[in-house]
Amino acid sequence: MLQIQENVSLKNFNTFGIDANARYFAEISHADELTELFADPIWLSMPRLILGGGSNMLMVADFNGLVIRLNIRGIEHRISHNDVFVEAGAGEVWNDLVNYCVDHGYAGMENLSLIPGSVGASPIQNIGAYGVELKDVFESCQAFEIASGSLKTFTKEDCRFGYRESVFKGELAGQYIIVSVKFHLSLVPNFNLKYGAIEQELAARGISEPTLKDVSQVVSHIRVSKLPDPSTIGNAGSFFKNPVITAEEFGPIQQNHPDVVHYPAGDGLVKLAAGWLIEQCGWKGKTVGNTGTWKNQALVLVNHGGATGEEVYGLSSQIIDSVYTKFGVTLHREVNIVK
């Protein structure tokens, strides 16, 4: 029987560790429970927040509505020749799914190791790391349409993936709840080792012909060396998107800062490393009140203990202003701001 709780603290449900309350709270373990929930019209008209791992959000105030925590589990797979199709419930922990695929020899997800969060959130954000994005391994997803109470399948084309964007963050925001995601992987690895320090770390380990597990372990090692563990210090991983600018805009920046970290982004565009920009403005490892930036990666904002969401948000605004002042580049928050 579906239960609705009242006045629930969300401190343990967001990786920033922000102490904010939900007026109402429901945990969903099966898609049928969504049908049951929204059969009551009171929940259709109320503000709602869909919660997975709580790893890509910042609570800046109590949530005066219904928080729905997805806990739909299960992983299944089907193999056809060298193609592997893996389907996982929205409530599965993302890295558990990556480890499952790596352990079974299903290639494609290894560069996405150790990204925090849940499977259901991965298409919404089009998560990515080390040269691979969710869209590269995405086959389809099933989503519950709140208005009709029916399930709909979304293909890759339907999702309109962009850089940390999808249709679920755009025109369909708030209209669907993802309940499962299907991935298209392969039994034949096609490694992407050029991004970041993957090649260097493999060479340092004396590995010239890596396995899926080698790549996954190296990616995990690199992430751990740069990013803080949310169980140790509150954070939401990368707080800002890497800005993408035109080649014309990039010219003066490179002229004034020859060592600027950048990557080609196609179509005459250049992607800048937000962490580098922030570090050049003197923010790396800086503490401001109860919050600050991580000592090893300026892109990550942290809660040193007792920080409010407003405090973290205020720090992010200061960083955005200083980067714009120094480089003329506007940073955009990757983390979802919940008010």
Quick summary of this structure?
By secondary structure, the protein is of the alpha+beta class.
How does this structure look, described?
- With 339 residues, the chain is an alpha+beta fold.
- The protein has three domains: 4-70, Uridine Diphospho-n-acetylenolpyruvylglucosamine Reductase, domain 2 (2-Layer Sandwich), CATH 3.30.43.10; 75-186, 2-Layer Sandwich (Uridine Diphospho-n-acetylenolpyruvylglucosamine Reductase, domain 3); 234-338, Uridine Diphospho-n-acetylenolpyruvylglucosamine Reductase, domain 1, CATH 3.90.78.10.
- The chain is 26% helix and 30% strand.
- The chain is built from ten helices and 20 strands.
- A five-stranded antiparallel sheet has the order 6-7-12-10-11. A four-stranded mixed sheet has the order 1-2-5-3.
- A hairpin with a 2-residue loop joins strand 18 and strand 19.
- The two termini are 30 Å apart.
- The mean pLDDT is 96.
- It catalyses: UDP-N-acetyl-alpha-D-muramate + NADP(+) = UDP-N-acetyl-3-O-(1-carboxyvinyl)-alpha-D-glucosamine + NADPH + H(+).
- Its cofactor is FAD.
- GO terms for molecular function: FAD binding; UDP-N-acetylmuramate dehydrogenase activity.
- Cell wall formation.
